[in-house]
Each structure stands twice: as structure tokens, then as C-alpha cells.
Design brief:
alpha+beta, Ubiquitin-like (UB roll), five-stranded mixed beta sheet, two-stranded antiparallel ribbon, 2 helices, about 25% strand
Length: about 90
């Protein structure tokens, strides 16, 4: 059973309009690399040049923010759900 990744609307143009993409269990970092191999250009929108998840991108594993877990090293197991949520600024 794979890990499901929910793709936000602004990034769906890179995933052929797929909202839910399956990746193999591993870590958040490995999942992002797998997404990049299948959907070129997605990685640069999610992580900075050092490989850290960008400040304006929130990533959750089963509704828990990875910043309070192990960031890119957060483990993923079969059946987990990853949500990528871009931050929204407003005033």
C-alpha cells in the first residue's frame, strides 16, 4: 500500500491535474525526490537550494506538521497521507 500525497491546486499543472499522487514509503525528502522524477519542476517549488521545505510551504503527514516531527526526514509508512499546503498571505 503506497503513501498518498495531496497536491494543492497551484501545483496540479505539474501533475497533469492529479489531486492525489501515490509514492513509496520512505521519508518526506524521498517522496519529494520521487515526485520530482515523475513531475519535473515540482521539487523547486517545495524545497529551497539546501533541500529544506520552503517557509511558505506547509507539509503535513496524517495532519501533523513535519516541522514538529523530523522535517524532511519524517518517516512515511504505508497508508500515510501527506498534504502539501501553500501558505496564504493576506491583510
Amino acid at each position: 500500500m503506497p503513501v498518498n500525497v495531496r497536491i494543492p491546486t497551484p501545483l496540479r499543472k505539474l501533475t497533469n491535474n492529479e489531486e492525489l499522487v501515490e509514492v513509496q514509503p520512505g521519508t518526506i525528502g524521498a517522496a519529494i525526490k520521487e515526485l520530482q522524477s515523475r513531475y519535473p519542476g515540482i521539487e523547486e517549488r517545495l524545497v529551497d537550494e539546501k533541500g529544506a521545505v520552503r517557509r511558505f510551504v506547509n507539509v503535513y503527514v496524517n495532519e501533523e506538521d513535519i516541522r514538529f516531527l523530523k522535517n524532511s526526514e519524517t518517516p512515511l509508512k504505508e497508508g500515510d497521507e501527506v498534504s502539501i499546503i501553500p501558505a496564504i498571505a493576506g491583510g
